[in-house]
Amino acid sequence: MPGSEETLRIILDNITPLGVERVDLQSALGRVLARDVVAPWDLPLFDNSARDGFALRSADCTGEGTTLRITGFIPAGCNVSEPVLGGCAVRIMTGAPIPHNCDAVVPGEDTLETDGQVTVMAPVRRRQYIRFRGEDLTGGDLVLTEGTVIQAQEIGLLASFGQAVVPVYRKARVAVLSTGDELIELGEQPSNGRIINSNAQYLAAALREIGAEPILLCIGRDNRESLKEQLQTGLKADALITTAGVSAGARDLVRDVLVEVGVRQMLGKIEMKSGGPKAFGMKDGIPVFSLPGNPLSTMVTFEEFVRPGLLRLMGHRRTVRPNLKARLREDIRKEPGRVHCQSVRVEAENGRYMATTVGNHKACRLSTIQRANAIVILPEGPSVVAAGEEVEVHLLRGDLVLLEEPNLTAGCVPDDRVSEEGETFERRVRVATR
Ligand SMILES: Nc1nc2c(c(=O)[nH]1)N[C@H]1C(S)=C(S)[C@@H](COP(=O)(O)OP(=O)(O)OC[C@H]3O[C@@H](n4cnc5c(N)ncnc54)[C@H](O)[C@@H]3O)O[C@H]1N2
Ligand code: MOO
Predict the structure, then answer these.
(1) Does the CB atom of residue 199 touch ligand 1 within 6 A?
(2) Which domains does the chain possess?
(3) 384 lines ligand 1 (CB under 6 A)
């Protein structure tokens, strides 16, 4: 029976990136660069001024207090060809090209100006306040390597080289199949026995968060015909996620129908609570993840197993969430012999990370994970992991840094939800979760 790490390895080993497409620069945000980018020209492309001031020849400034005649003005965007004569200077703006025979710029604040003349009040060094051609990057330099995730900084860099179209790995179109006779769609009225298909909405949002394109299929009902029809539709996408219908119930048919439609299963049962993929298979290069139906288990399983797999499908190299060691603030009870994944709140305290439980972790409870910023991995063996023990946590959200900011407690307001059973986490934590 594979452990959770081995399960993730099997998933990642079976998935290879989708093909490459060329998109306009802004659409490349968040995508993975599919080719190396080489500088087509020098950056900067010409010597230019780093200050608003005067361009001159340093040899003309024999001592402090040298006075030069102002013979011109070079604003940014202007093209200069005239040399500057001996004993002269030209007014120049930041970013403007330097006349070819000047070798220094003096900032305006280091000069005195009277009657068309400028007196230099500070010592002048050769090359001062000039940004030289190619000092940032030289034409032919490797600018970005294949596999880089394109963020705003990369967009700026690519734009400065005129790259209006960028080769990136394809976005994954991911079909989501929720199964169960009890499910109704968002917008319908829940009644006794019928519940809203919230998993599909969660998955659609979680897929968008990682830059994938969700395709929500019709709800699969608990009979072979309905499941077969929806699975076949789902297999036209780049990846398929199913939820529910995979445990021991008389109507848990998903596993059987997956085999019927030709999905080759790559995993056995995984002993993990909550969640863990109930099945993972491949058909013609399309990964198929079968998730448990309980909403919290769906979320934990997506985070721990599906998200890394889909990131790899879209060309990402770093697919796993940041992984930290934290100390438990209180004892956590668990079932011996199974790895447990639970949502927790991690805070930095005196240079250490502390993990606090955020409520009951029953797999059907959605309120718990919403307060968490991490998933704790509790080891297989013991029935209790004691307060103070070091555990592995996987960060879910980027707000850990916010928790370290001073005066975090200043904006605290009481919150009645905190009095729920078993909750010991501190009030101030909630400020950052809003
Ligand atoms: N005899 C056994 N029963 C169960 C076992 C077991 O080992 N033996 N495992 C339990 C655990 S743990 C889980 S998790 C579930 C997994 O079952 P399924 O994945 O087949 O899911 P269902 O039973 O159909 O549903 C579970 C639960 O989740 C609700 N659900 C389902 N789909 C959605 C959805 N799209 N949106 C919101 N909520 C959903 C469903 O109504 C059920 O309450 O099995 C346990 N039982
Ligand atoms: O394994 Mo279930 O997936 O605990 O919630």
Answers:
(1) yes
(2) 4-18+171-313 (3.40.980.10), 21-39+142-169 (3.90.105.10), 48-131 (2.170.190.11), 323-414 (2.40.340.10)
(3) no
